[in-house]
Design goal:
Blueprint lengths: L5 E4 L2 H12 L7 H23 L12 E6 L4 E6 L6 H8 L7 H14 L7 H7 L10 E9 L6 E6 L4 E7 L5 E8 L14 H12 L6 E10 L13 E9 L16 H12 L7 E7 L5 E7 L16 E5 L2 E7 L11 E6 L8 H6 L1 H24 L6 H13 L2 H4 L4 H7 L2 E3 L2 E6 L1 H6 L7 E6 L3 H5 L5 H6 L4 E3 L2 H9 L2 E2 L2 E5 L10 H17 L1 H10 L4 E6 L8 E4 L7 H9 L9 E5 L4 H12 L6 H15 L7 H15 L1
Bound molecules: adenosine-5'-diphosphate (ADP).
The site of adenosine-5'-diphosphate has 16 residues, from helix 2.
Amino acid sequence: MAATAEKHTFQAEVKELLDLMIHAIYSNKEIFLRELISNSSDALDKLKFEALTQPELKPSDWTPHILLSADKDARTLTIADNGIGMSKEDVVNLIGTIAKSGTAEFAAALKAQAAQNEKGEVSPDLIGQFGVGFYSTFMVADNVTLITRKAGEETATQWQSTGDGNYTIEEATRDACGTSITLHLKPEDADNAMLDYADRWVLQDIVKKYSDFVIHPVQMDVEITEVERDEEGKPVEGGKETTRIERQTLNSMKAIWTRPESEVTPEEYNEFYKHIAHDWTDPLETIRMKMEGTFEAQSLLFIPTKAPFDLFFKDFQHGIHLYVKRVFIMNDCKELMPRYLRFIRGVVDSEDLSLNISREILQQDRQIRAIRKRLVKKVLSTLDNLKKGDTDNKGKYKTFWDAFGQVLKEGLFEDQENTEALLDVCLFHSSKSETEQTDLREYISRMQSGQEEIYYMTGESYQAVINSPHLEAFQAKGVEVLVLTDPVDEIWIQSVPEFDGKRLRSVGKGLVDLGTDEEKKAAEAAREEKQESHKSLLEALQAKLDTDIKEVRLSSRLTDSAACLVGDTHDMTPQMEKLMKAMNQEAPKTKRILELNPDHPILEKLNGAFSQNKEDTRIEDYAHLLYNQALLAEGSPIPDPAKFSKLLSDLMVQTL
Ligand code: ADP
């Protein structure tokens, strides 16, 4: 049956990615084979898993395999598997489009990188982060044909493209379920990493290097020529030559986590990571663990080096691959890793779970919960060790923290059981240095005598926080303040009261009491005295600001500025209010406290003028100016900028 081919156009972003693939990657092209073998291996795993509940999907004599066939003269290479296959709809959705959110942004970022580079080159690592496995074929091929038949279906689908923006789809035939991908190879060009990918030895090397541990056989039909031999096994001169075809398996197929640790090389771990994580960059750290006792399991986990671009998207696929006694059960098993460790990749192989375990059962399974607990502890202790080893704050842990610190901090409100261990590995900016980060133990070791609390301030940026009036007294006394500027900081800080017996305390909330006990007492007495002498001014200001401000009082946290806004200890910060509004959540309006600096000339003069002549002092205008000034200083918007600027002009005219 000769069905006509339908012509389709690639989604715009896919076209851009393909263009980059073809024109902007010059090295390491051989990894296309790893990508195709990984896809085939996944397809075999999927069929195995589906057949647990629907045995009819699997052909009766099914043995999973991946077969490579090359034709040197025609310059073609075919990778075929007898896995789950794809329906026509699957092909259009999975191969013609990338349904992941953020694809357009990602493609634009890559294009920008290529534009900045002299050669117009982009790093394969970056493309790899996106998971564009199948498209990598266009690095080495100028024409790709895919024929696939989904398990349980009768017809097959053929997809074909030269990578120029279009592809065709038509009906096809295939003996059984599975997928075959035929590449028409570009001319050899060793300078551009274009080797002879139709050569048996080249292929054999690539499989060994990148796919040795794949648990399904990667095979190739190899022609073997034998010469006639005599009884002693010596070749007979002028004897007959016979050739036969032998199917050879190119990979050792050994599950890497079952091999003795001493025998596995770091390169092998790295390749295994890239295989399961669909990443092109080596992992930062490899974690192997054996669990014994009430249950038995092994795990091999990886901390990636770079954050995938979609780490913060809602549909980010996370989780660990689950095996039971070396049999693949499922990928992205979310039950094995909490959300705040969603960047961790790897496998768990259990000895005791049932092979028929379903996703539904998983959620209630006690053993799964126990395994997860152990994995979390292990990951956290690994991070702790990495951090301890990173003495100069520039090495591995710094790389980790820059990539995943924000995600890890989500654990501070998601995982109460491990709060202390998590806080131990958190790094923070502080008023001590803009560039170097500190941890809480170091902060505590630097606390001044008499200081009992860990001070912090949240805000939009380091500069905004460090220059905020709230910090003045702390800066003047040399008391260090943590500067928290990640959006997630606003959230966790609400649920973590203390660390190592020291209260975490916002410098933007409550009264400030710095110094030794005597100093504190003296300062408070002085403040109360001044509060008394400023009483009627404060009351008058308060009356004018009543809708926005719950109290006007004198401050002990200001040294340079005239005014600032503070909250009560349990009030919501303005940043938190903003965050809730951004998430479309109702944020109750919190009235705050306006603190004024009694030693500031404005206050001195205002108080003087006001006590002499209450009626002639424009108290309403001054109240408005002081309040708006405080809002501006903390980076909050002011409600009526036109009014503020008019008042300011009036005042300038008066004084000039
Ligand atoms: P990724 O592997 O990162 O998901 P790919 O572009 O390589 O991205 O593949 C996209 C999807 O196409 C896969 O997730 C899979 O669903 C499907 N696919 C690719 N190759 C095969 C194959 N050999 N058999 C079945 N499905 C496949």
